[in-house]
Amino acid sequence: MSDETPAVPVISVEGVTKLYRRTMPGDRLRTLKSALVGRNLTNGLRPDEAIAALEGVDFTVGRGEAFGIIGGNGSGKSTMLKLVAGMLKPTTGRIVVAGRVAALIELGAGFHPEISGRENVFINGAVLGLTRKEIESRYADIVEFSGLGDFMEEPVKNYSSGMYVRLGFAVAVHTNPDVLLVDEVLAVGDEAFAHRCLRRIEEFLASGRTLLLVSHSLDLVEGVCDRVMWLENGHQRLVGEPRRVIDAYRQEVAEKEGEEHKAALQQRQEDPASEDPELRWGSQEAEITSIRLLVGGEERYHVESGEPVVFEIRARAAQALDDFVFGVAVATPRGTEVWGTNTDLEGYVAGVFDGEATVRLACPALRLGPGDYVVDVAVHSKEGAPYDYQKRALAFTVTARAGGIGTYLPEHGWEFTGGLKWAGRKTLDP
Length: 430
What we know:
There is one protein chain. This protein is α/β, with parallel strands linked by helices. 25% of the residues lie in helices and 33% in strands. It has a domain at 282-399: Coagulation Factor XIII, Chain A, domain 1 (Distorted Sandwich). The protein has eight helices and 19 strands. The strands form four sheets. A six-stranded mixed beta sheet has the order 5-6-7-3-8-9, with helices on both faces. Strand 8 and strand 9 (235-240) form a beta hairpin. The mean pLDDT is 85.
């Protein structure tokens, strides 16, 4: 779908604000009577009395559309889903949802812990408007999808977090809702079940129904959603095509991490004792004093795939060394090695290192795939004895206009011959 407003909205959110009363001294001493009398707790609050979870949010979601919501912790994502689900009411604004809604929002929400999984299936189905006969006709499919056949007679309080998710998702998708609301809870399930859920979501969307998805997994959001909204501190930052919104979000996160990196580096220089021994070690015969990522001569931690970059290392040796090697290694945050090199591998023979020095590793085109990366840097002897090894010394984010998966994005082009004709080609966002 395009960035434009859907012609037939299934979800319509108009100027929604959600305020919570700030806990003030003495609030815990309020009586039940005072709470009931003042049950409309968020109207007429002064700014110092309220916390805004959401402010002035507007969006619509069309039939058959998958709409994603991204943002940092505390940005208002889950609050937005609860408002659409009807679990919360907006302080101001209006929300209209057409059709039956099934929500998979909080782990175990809607389940009674003391009764069995089977009984919970029937209660949840009834809450969603199904008759007992309808639930009975779907019960076997729910059990098969969840894979919990041996546990359906057990009280759900004995379930693991993954089992909660299995049962909750199975019930939600088998009640044939018009709108499915899914929060981060899918991340709790195992890999095989996650794939099963994604296949079911694709079938759900293909049948013309609507998905509202909240997740910190940006790759999942980009792969599933037609449009994405970025929330920040309760405010709507951007709504549009997934790659454009996600790239903008990643760029801001990378810039903030760059600032944090500089602040942490300054703290290490001022207070060496604050260094985490798991992230830095060595004899300190030579010391790396800073590491920066330069793009176009400027320090930057958000890179477009294929841009020229420079890894700049500043170091010093208190006493002259005649055995030294400088190295740089790039990896994913989960530790998958992507690329690395050092001066010895490149054929440089050590001469003298004494005092201050700057080492720059230039990459004319850093063709990494979209994603987040971390960098290790080191100065060590030729035999590998570390003088100063810094793990995760900096982090950066890569985005790309061209599609692709993996960590390597080579320069490439398509060629076609024979009886093959394309209707056209989409313009990729800049």
